Amino acid sequence: STEIPSYVTKCPSNGLCSRLPPDCMTCNTNYSCIYGKPATFDCKVKPHVHCVDQNNQEQENFTINMTCQFCWQLATTDYVCTNSTSCMTVSCPRQRYNATCTVRDNVHCLGNRVFPKMLYCNWTGGYKWSTALALSITLGGFGADRFYLGQWREGLGKLFSFGGLGIWTLIDVLLIGVGYVGPADGSLYI
Fold it and tell me: In terms of C-beta density within 10 A (0-12 exposed, 13-18 middle, 19 or more buried), how is residue 18 classed?
């Protein structure tokens, strides 16, 4: 008995060969293609995959047209990457993290379909900029803005000094307004 490979579940039966996902075919790499230009690639379906041409005739060898580029050069909408919630988004210089990215099933490209990429930290903890600014303007003298952002030490300092007699309050309105002061967990505002 022959065991059916796992990629077969991703391959629609008797569909057009040119519309198959990349996992269902093997293509000859065309290294003479010019980056960013359309190129034609000779492909063959993998074992246990059945597909047809425009005339509904079963086919094994076919050609596909795609843009000549490596997978890591694709637009960010063409792949999905892992997220990191442990890095600080509000730091200077802006922090980056190592992500593992996987190309979407309907996109064809050259090279490995799973690749590493350095991405900027870009996550949110649910804090709203407008709420932080409103708290800073109205209740900033009592440290409400800093308490809201999770910066309880600064909040206590503002509370017991009456917002630094108003000076700290005015400075915080400006700093929160331009986005320099953010959530304590390092996330971005919503």
Answer: middle
